Amino acid sequence: MGWSRRLQLSVSLAAILFFLPLHETVSASVREQVIPMGHSIGIQMELSGVFVTNDVLINEDDWLKAGDAINRIDKIPIATLSDFEKKMSTSKSGQMLMQIDRNGVEIDLLADLDAIKRLLPFLKDRTEGTGTLTYVDPKKGTYGALGHQIVDSSLKSPPSFKNGAIYLSEIDQIKKSTPGTPGYKISSILENEDHLGTIQKNGVYGIFGMWNDAYKKVLAKPLDIMQATELQIGGAEIFTTVKGTEVEKFSIQITHIEEEQFHFVLTDAKLLEKTGGILQGMSGSPVIQDGKFVGAVTHMFVDEPTKGAGLFLVTMRGGE
């Protein structure tokens, strides 16, 4: 998953994610409650077809472009990599007609079998990444995570997907952040674990879907959702995971409040020693102040990794 760089440039913190646009804040009742999470999650999405990940020369004159979808080969539908491999194994040498979709326009290309076979390392029918689970709504049976949209780094766009799921993951190692170089979590999905929830929407405010009730064991106490006007400059906490599957609380300082987002500084010595600052993979970590659920961590400042930005939960939930 790709990352941006340089001073004053904020970057998203999940493995396959993009910058957060600013939109109008969505109101929520002060009495409304959701459960703050902070668990590290693995994200898996089955794409709506077979996509090209790099620009590839397919014949003397034509290139396939990153993001192209292969719809058919010699009129045989190609919906998965298995379809592609089966077609290659049963075809004989010679010219073949490929029908691809490029930004909604269908294009026909001729290429020989060997050239098409060489495409396999540059094709994908699924995408995956990591991030942090933000909240669970026990009344609706839904969840929200990340606080910003998934953008596949090889396709350079939000992936078109058929279905997807999130899974509880375990942090195996931390690569610390340093000025100019964002750190990251090295994690793995727990074996023999069912999904935490399904992915139904990949929107500008995060990913959302139905929660799996089998995971009630990871739920904490619901908290009131804080209105943006209630947030104060001063102390707060983030809930996140930096070791194993344990969610821990760490102190931060809210430094600046805007209509649609807020800025903060990490002040917890234990967290700073462990991570050096905010990490890729922390995107979605809940922010709590005075016992109320403020929002989610969404960005860091690359050259000052102890500084970050967050999205108000009332805005995030407007994207469900």
UniProtKB/TrEMBL annotation:
Database matches in SUPFAM superfamilies: PDZ domain-like
Residues of the Peptidase S55 domain: 100-320
Gene3D superfamilies associated with the record: 2.30.42.60
One Pfam short name: Peptidase_S55
PROSITE patterns, alphabetized: SPOIVB
Name of this protein: SpoIVB peptidase S55 domain-containing protein
